[in-house]
Amino acid sequence: MTYDRIHKFLLRSIASRGVIAMPEVKQIINSFTEDVDVSPKDLIKDINEKIRPFQQKIKITNDELTSEEVVVFLSLGYDDATKSQNIFSATELEYFRILLEQIMTTVTRQITGIHAINLVSSMKSSFTKTDAQKLLNVWCQMRYLDKDDANYALGVRAIHEFEGYFRENMPDIIEECCLCKQVVFRGCNCPACGVAIHTLCLNKYLEKLQKWPCCMIDFNQAQLDRFNCIGLSQSVRLRETQETICDETEPLTCSSMDVDDGTQEIIPEISQRITRKRKRPE
């Protein structure tokens, strides 16, 4: 299919929002051209051919938490050209990296809003709690973060844009769900055996049996609520919970982007400049 106005219209819509549900993508296409029956997947394939040289991609995937089919705009570049276009400062990206690591190293893959803001105290740069709150709001709007009640978790955009970053820089914390065998970014670790489980997979399992699927101990929502109330690391939380189990003897359980021939306007995204941690030599 010839790359034309409908491709540019769809690209602009997805890039400006970051994440759009598939039904809404279809509505956008229909509102642009009701007389033509066009497949969203075919349009996205054509668009990706155009934006690939700029290390950008549109991905059709499923939200790990809701299982909803969504379309995500991803920026995968780390080179100097894309770095220079980013709207976030080095200090803001330092905070984002610390935030990602804190979320990924907790049992429930989320941290409280208070803990997220207090992370500024661990930064080398001058950064206020007011600055942090403003950025948290921006990153939720961009779908890099999701806010569940008072807790922050990775949004679907961060999950797919930073999967490579996590695998390279934090391989020890990448875990597969014991049920579906996919990497867990939105989920938890069993408080008894420490095995990782997707939130969605766990909820579906609990509809049939109120036990943890990994070790079959009784499930109690209070176990997860206890984890969410503080911002401890995964290892500390597991150790404290497992000690509690032993003591109690009861089982716990773009704003604007046109791709024309020879010209393009970079969509500024977080991944283009995030600091990559160097591995220590063994």
UniProtKB/TrEMBL annotation:
PANTHER family xref list: NON-SMC ELEMENT 1-RELATED, NON-STRUCTURAL MAINTENANCE OF CHROMOSOMES ELEMENT 1 HOMOLOG
EC number(s) recorded for this UniProt protein: 2.3.2.27
Family in the record: Belongs to the NSE1 family.
Localization recorded for this chain is: Nucleus
What protein name is recorded for this chain? Non-structural maintenance of chromosomes element 1 homolog
**Is Transferase there in the keyword field?**
yes
User: Quaternary structure?
Assistant: Component of the Smc5-Smc6 complex.
- Biological process, per Gene Ontology: double-strand break repair via homologous recombination
Please give the Gene Ontology molecular function terms for this protein. ubiquitin protein ligase activity; zinc ion binding
Please provide the record's keywords in A-Z order. Answer: DNA damage, DNA recombination, DNA repair, Metal-binding, Nucleus, Transferase, Ubl conjugation pathway, Zinc, Zinc-finger
Substrates-to-products reaction catalysed: S-ubiquitinyl-[E2 ubiquitin-conjugating enzyme]-L-cysteine + [acceptor protein]-L-lysine = [E2 ubiquitin-conjugating enzyme]-L-cysteine + N(6)-ubiquitinyl-[acceptor protein]-L-lysine
Q: Which GO terms describe its cellular component?
A: nucleus; Smc5-Smc6 complex
